Amino acid sequence: MEPRVWLPLLLRLGLMWPLGAPSEPRLRVFVVPHSHMDVGWLHTVQESMQAYVTNVYNTVVEELTLEKKRRFIAVEQEYFRLWWDGIASEDDETYLFAEGHGFLYDTFGVRPQFSWQVDPFGASATTPTLFALAGFNAHVISRIDYDLKEAMQKDQELQFVWRGSRSLSAQQEIFTHVLDQFGYCSEGFNWDGEASFPGTPLNGFYPQIQIPVTEDSIPNFTSLLLNNVLTRASWFRTPHVLWPWGCDREFLNASLQFANMDIIMEYINSHASEFNFSMEYATLGDYFRAVHSDQVAWQVRDHHDFLPYSSDMHHAWTGFYASRSGLKALARRASALLYAGESMFTRHVLLAPHPHLDPAWGLQQLQQLRWAVSEVQHHDAITGTHALKVDDMFVEHLSSGMQGVHTLMASIIQDRSPAHSGPEPVGCFAVVYNPLAWTVTTIITLTVDFPNVSITDESGRPVPAQVQRSKEMPSAYDLHVLTTIPGLSYQHYSIRPSRSSQEGTGEPEPFVAKTTQFGRRLRRRGGRVGRNLVPVVNDCYIIFLDLDTNLMHSVWERRSNQKVHVTQRFMEYHAITDFSKGPFADNYVFRPDGRAEPAWEAVRMEIVAGPLVTEIRQDFYREVNDSEPTFAIYSRLAHGPQGSDGELLCHRIEQEYRVGPLELNREAILRTSTDMNTGRVLYSDNNGYQMQRRPYRQDTWNTIARNYYPMVQSAFIQ
Question: Domains (ranges, CATH) in the chain?
Answer without folding.
Answer: 27-198+207-306 (3.20.110.10), 325-415 (1.20.1270.50), 429-512 (2.60.40.1180), 514-675 (2.70.98.30)
